[in-house]
């Protein structure tokens, strides 16, 4: 006990009592310092002869010093808490690794073939180097566009039925259940369905762009229904009542009041649904097939699409393989950029056009 | 709906049903019926086109096998790949969901949510390409290590594949694909845990982990189960990632890292369909029907669990 402490005896006693109640704690900087040291070791290890994988593993193992230290100082309960916190942060970092790796791989490999020629030439009569993905881009846009034209009216009107007319009765509950079931249809089964349907009319071995649209619509309709339904439910009842009280028929109320109010959300949902199906490969592989020429007619013969083109170029590259694989990565990059843009557009639409107060 | 708030049966209806109303209702109801017809169509057309494939004799199809012998190994491969994916993905997904809902800095958590959702936006063919070109060659040393050190376990009996095109690689890619789905559902459910339960636990002196274990997990248990099953449904039906990564054979083996791997139904259809003709096509469609039935059962069970939970928890 020194006499230099100017505080009264009472305060010092209180502090002692508090610390005896609180138990020992690690200093606030402890996690930061441990993680900092571990990160330094990981980077040094990755740059040295250990290699990236072992270096990062070593750094990760070092972070476990924190729960061990905590166990010595703070006791088992807080140590478990710190251990779990560490594991939860690790899980998130682990999930980021494949995301980063995929984006890096696609961009680094895809950018090498990207050029004006690549985007504006088809693969007709191309052997070896050269050629492009114009035919696949056109096929993807046509087939997805037709799928959107099929599924948006069906999906939107189904949502209107469930929310505006069904109102929780048995039929609307049944429809909702079927929509849930439809969400779980594997994409390849949708493709087989479209094939089995078209075989009835056009005979065996049928390949048609519109068949791909039907298959994609099967996958897209449930997404459109669910998102439109959520959006229609958000429309305040007062708006409907005000319109009906003015003597406006129900159908005009829906068309002029309810749907316009929910429009931004519906557009967002439809855009996200397009982004989801535009990358589907399996159904198009079955019913739309693959071709080297540009085909603008949905109702006549095979149509190339970006995902199928990327798949066949990478899985069956032929001889010599490198040109075909490069083109496959170019197609994958184009597809990824389209999907990311669609997601961005959806977010922007919902941000700028949704009714005020619901952002 | 709101116009029928006060039913007055005695008076004649004041507002007559206008023709426009009837037409509009007809269109909406018709659209709902189309969904019913589509689902019925999926079942009926697949059955109609699949039956000739089931009854076809062994020498009429390309594989030279009767239908049960043909589809059996495929069902095994489908389940195996999906189970690997779930075993790898669910613990990580729960961790990521907890990170976003309870552990990350509050202001950044929605940004982290978007980042994980980005994984769901990547097209499956890109996953497949990444799996075969990047992941498979990178992971070969790890398989060799597994074989050298854990080779006594039948799962890693080897000999390890030199290309990395194994069912385990396919399972890892599938795990990455179902991760965002399971994470998104778990996150929603974790966030729905009643605030008061959590604050009560914290006020009693629980650490954050003890609060999660005592308040969040009991509340979210059935949600985690159904999220995993929805992920399972996705993993069962995923085609391209497996079709691009795997070097398939028609075998049943527990060995995860050798160069002979069981194929999955979906990937087998994608690989065989473009060149198939005659009854082989019907056999493939029948195998697709088997896949549809399996995923339907899994999704149905998952939805049932979600709905049962709704009734009891009053969360919705």
In short:
The complex is a heterodimer of chains A (359) and B (316). Chain A is built from 15 helices and no strands. By secondary structure, chain A is mainly α.
What does this structure look like?
The complex is a heterodimer of chains A (about 350) and B (about 325). Chain A is built from 15 helices and no strands. Chain A has about 350 residues and is mainly alpha-helical. Chain A has 2 domains: about 10-110, no CATH class; about 120-355, Orthogonal Bundle (MetI-like fold). In chain A, helix 7 packs parallel to helix 10 (about 210-235). The longest helix of chain A is centred in the N-terminal third of the chain and has 35 residues, at about 75-110. Chain B has one domain (about 60-315): MetI-like fold (Orthogonal Bundle). In chain B, helix 4 packs across helix 5 (about 165-190). The longest helix of chain B has about 35 residues, at about 20-55. The radius of gyration of chain B is 25 Å and the shape is flat.
Q: Uncertain runs of chain A with pLDDT below 50, 5 residues or more?
A: none
Please identify the structural class of chain A as seen in this structure.
Answer: mainly alpha
For the largest sheet of chain B, list the strands in their spatial order: 1-2
In CATH, the topology of chain B is named: MetI-like fold
Largest sheet of chain B: 2 strands, parallel
Task: Tell me what the CATH architecture of the largest domain in chain A is.
Answer: Orthogonal Bundle
